[in-house]
Design a protein that fits this description.
Layout: H1 3-13, H2 16-37, H3 41-48, H4 57-83, H5 85-91, H6 104-125, H7 127-145, H8 153-171, H9 174-202, H10 204-210, H11 215-219, H12 221-238, H13 241-244, H14 250-255, H15 257-271, H16 276-296
Helix pairs in contact: 2-3, 2-4, 2-8, 2-9, 4-6, 4-7, 6-7, 7-8, 8-9, 9-12, 9-16, 12-15, 15-16
Length: 299
């Protein structure tokens, strides 16, 4: 196996595209937090400006923001595959570990190497970023070991990790940046929690065949649908917070209305129509609309 093929294999192990998307989402959160703290085009230019020959200190920190989330996410994916190797030998035999392209021991070392570098980068940014990084890595490790197979706690762990992408982006500016991102963290957490449960409802038959132990399998479709709907309510309630907290303009409040309506409509599809796929898709769209609303509120 040549060097290039090894790189391709490890990129596949860490879910390269997925990890990169998480990194870019964090950069967007950083830009939003910056715009709230330093309004106007001047604040944005100050954030990204510097020498084209040698990046300045701020630019290096921005690179660290992306790399930390990229590596931590990649490490988490690699660790999950390490513990799922026996299952993947049956369900996904072409993946890099069950196919033998990477040895399990090397995947384990790679995962913790990614975590270590990610945490070094986090603390290099500031203590707030480092602490969030430590918490996330701990959650990822416990998720791979225990939480993934624990009904509801596994869903909430994934939701927490998705939400903290925004907290980490805000942490670039210390505690003030974290406060700005709390509403988006809450929306992302609750929407993701709802979607995770909805996806489990959709996968009941397949999960039963695999011997999985999800919330819908234990408590049934109806109770699971009500729980998913319950998580949507606080997400919708949290949408006005950035305006009421004084961080964003009235344009945010106007722009976020479709996102809030979408969340309520998702409850209708979930409980009345029992169209779980449509409800999940509407929630996904609502999350993107909420993120767009943050950008609209900067003007």
């Amino acid at each position: 196996m040549n060097f290039f093929q090894k790189i391709v294999n490890y990129a596949e192990l860490m879910r390269f595209k997925n990890a990169a998307m998480a990194g870019f989402a964090t950069l967007i959160a950083t830009i939003i937090a910056n715009a709230c703290i330093n309004p106007g085009i001047e604040g944005f230019i100050e954030l990204i400006s510097g020498s084209y020959v040698l990046p300045n200190k701020t630019q290096l920190k921005l690179m660290s923001v992306f790399l930390m989330v990229f590596l931590a996410t990649g490490g988490g994916n690699a660790l999950n595959d390490f513990y799922d190797i026996e299952i993947d030998k049956i369900n996904r035999p072409k993946r890099v570990l069950p196919s033998g392209r990477i040895k399990p021991k090397n995947a384990y070392i790679f995962a913790y190497s990614c975590f270590t570098i990610a945490l070094i980068l986090g603390f290099a940014i500031n203590p707030f970023s480092g602490v969030i990084g430590v918490i996330n890595v701990i959650v990822m490790i416990f998720y791979a070991l225990v939480l993934k197979k624990t009904p509801l706690l596994g869903n909430l762990s994934v939701s927490f990790l998705v939400g903290t992408i925004f907290l980490f982006g805000g942490s670039f500016f210390g505690f003030e940046g974290i406060k700005i991102m709390i509403p988006l963290f809450l929306v992302a957490f609750f929407v993701t929690a709802s979607r995770e449960i909805v996806k489990d409802i959709e996968d009941i038959e397949g999960d039963k065949a695999k011997g999985a132990n999800t919330f819908p399998i234990i408590y049934g479709e109806k109770k699971s649908a009500y729980l998913a709907a319950f998580f949507i309510i606080p997400a919708a309630i949290c949408t006005p917070l950035p305006y009421t907290m004084g961080y964003l303009s009235i344009y945010y409040l106007i722009a976020v209305i479709p996102a809030a309506i979408g969340m309520i409509y998702a409850i209708y599809q979930l409980l009345i129509k029992k169209d779980y796929t449509k409800s999940s898709n509407i929630l996904k769209i609502s999350m993107f609309l909420a993120l767009f609303s943050f950008i609209a509120g900067l003007f």
